Amino acid sequence: MALDPIMLEAAAPVAAIIGFTSVIGWVATTWLKVKNGYPLENSWGKPMYPNGGGEAMERIKLLSQENAQLRAELGSLKDRMAVLERIATDKPSMLAAEIDALATKQLN
User: pTM score, two decimals?
Assistant: First the structure.
């Protein structure tokens, strides 16, 4: 079955519009990714980060270190908060007994 020239003439503008729309959509999404700081992707879908130079890498390293310090501090604060919540919600008699047990433990 051969392609009908009339069908080909009717399908050509539709195919051109679809192709043009696809290219414009790809350009728009790439621009939005770059504008908002998202990494671009290679043909396999893996993120590609633009090379920002040594200054950008140093800044990322410093921010990563600060992030690790803040996470450690947050962990210790959560532990302290849990102790304070337990002290506030426990019965006074149980709290006094625990304090006495700790005091006798230190003396021995």
Answer: 0.39
